[in-house]
Specification:
The chain is of the alpha+beta class. About 30% of the residues lie in helices and about 30% in strands.
């Protein structure tokens, strides 16, 4: 997130979110989001605020497969961070994250990935899934 004057590490927050998902830590996961955060998932549904997140996350965490929440790539963009990873069912997805000034996630936008490729940048940065 170039040009951003933040006192938090947006990539670290995205990694913390992925870790919380992988370890099924719902409260830690919810704590990363702003009170009125918006989650737009791959199927077109939108979830808003803590009540929305509580409708979305528990079922996803319970249904997670062994291939769930594995990191493929994380890339800081100008206004957001993009995370390419394996969703709760092991499918390849990309999610964009936006943050408030306190480092809370304000919005996530998920889209299915079709390329399946990992970039060399992710491998060099150390933010990639370990085999």
């Amino acid at each position: 997130m170039s040009g951003s004057k933040t006192d938090f590490d947006p990539i670290g927050i995205v990694i913390d979110r992925l870790d919380a998902c992988r370890e099924r830590r719902l409260e830690d996961l919810l704590a990363l989001y702003a009170d009125r955060a918006t989650l737009d998932c791959c199927d077109g549904n939108r979830f808003i605020g803590r009540s929305g997140l509580l409708r979305y996350w528990p079922g996803k965490l319970r249904a997670a497969t062994g291939a769930a929440f594995l990191l493929d790539e994380v890339v800081p963009e100008k206004d957001y961070v993009r995370l390419d990873y394996r969703d709760y069912d092991g499918s390849e997805v990309g999610t964009k994250f936006w943050f408030d000034d306190q480092g809370n996630i304000t919005r996530t936008l998920c889209v299915p990935r079709r390329d399946g490729a990992r970039s060399k940048a992710a491998q060099v940065s150390g933010y990639h899934a370990k085999s």
